[in-house]
DNA sequence: GCAAGATTGTCTGTGCACAGATTATTTACG
DNA sequence: CGTAAATAATCTGTGCACAGACAATCTTGC
């Protein structure tokens, strides 16, 4: 921790700020991986939101369709757990998909508490188009990283996620 | 994209789920670094919040005190930009610190639109205590990573942050 | 069989991040 | 000088994530 500097406020002159006041964030991100992670995720999330703005599906809805396509009909609970989306958020997510006619809430035959969320035939093309946009999405979000660095990132995130 | 499976719902039996329905997230995190990043950050943020729950300062307030201590009095604008905290959030953040008597809103001598947020003598010990907790905080948040992996993470996040 | 607890989907309220409008002040320009 | 544009702090409203409560239904222990 550096000694507090004398009460010098931002100078309106063009001198290069010996205290590093204008590049302070870089230094902070160097010594605080937690802050760096949070701020970088904000940047990535913003990029994702921009990219998805014009499209038909939100990211959550895209993931729901993908999981249903991969493993078959699921309860909202299963979708929530595996996609790490809160149950109460999943409600609105499925609402939207149902309104668009991409999924149906059928009753689970053996557990009438649960739905069996099921894909409709209309979902196929929509999901396929969304999937086709993923590579471009990742390229924009991770422009700064090489392919090898993206794999490293994936590995590190996997380790963090594994310990809950 | 795997072919849609037949309409088989979650079986109540104990058979090991050939479809991988119960480990679906692991597969998803492997192929979607963006999702992995967002979910891992949620995990880290939760850990941080738990750790900070009993303490006097929020993470944002801690960072404000640290920056003021490092570079001297700043306007809220400078704090917002460098700490990547929204201006409108910074207001409440400084409010809290002022109520606790740790900073004062003095007027900037050459720009009466801006404040000169200034540390009080009481801030020293509080900041020092907060700083002393950081290593333990990081250890909890990144239990899953070795020291080398944490440095790698810091480097990758830095690259993402550099391109804005 | 039945009472107690767990689970599913839903709803509500809180807190945070973000965009936009507002006011006071400063800077730029004709 | 004096008007227009830019900036600092603030306030308001929106959208999202999360915790907790709730009713309906299932499961478990006795």
From TrEMBL, chains A, B:
Instruction: Please state every residue range assigned to the domain named HTH marR-type.
Output: 21-162
* A Pfam family of this chain: MarR
**GO molecular function per UniProt:** DNA-binding transcription factor activity
Q: Where is this region: Disordered?
A: 1-20
Q: One of this protein's GO BP terms?
A: response to stress
Protein name per Swiss-Prot or TrEMBL: HTH marR-type domain-containing protein
- Which source organism does the UniProt entry give? Streptomyces microflavus
């Amino acid at each position: 921790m550096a000694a507090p500097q004398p009460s010098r406020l931002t100078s309106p002159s063009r001198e290069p700020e010996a205290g590093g006041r204008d590049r302070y964030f870089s230094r902070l991100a160097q010594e605080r991986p937690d802050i760096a992670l949070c701020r970088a995720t904000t940047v990535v999330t913003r990029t994702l939101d921009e990219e998805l703005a014009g499209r038909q599906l939100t990211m959550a809805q895209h993931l729901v369709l993908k999981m249903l396509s991969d493993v078959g009909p699921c309860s909202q609970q299963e979708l929530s757990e595996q996609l790490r989306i809160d149950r109460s958020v999943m409600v609105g997510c499925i609402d939207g998909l149902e309104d668009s006619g991409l999924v149906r809430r059928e009753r689970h035959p053996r557990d009438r508490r649960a739905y069996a969320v099921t894909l409709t035939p209309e979902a196929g093309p929509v999901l396929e188009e969304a999937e086709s946009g993923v590579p471009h999405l990742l390229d924009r979000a991770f422009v700064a990283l090489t392919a090898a660095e993206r794999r490293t990132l994936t590995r590190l995130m996997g380790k963090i996620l594994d310990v809950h």
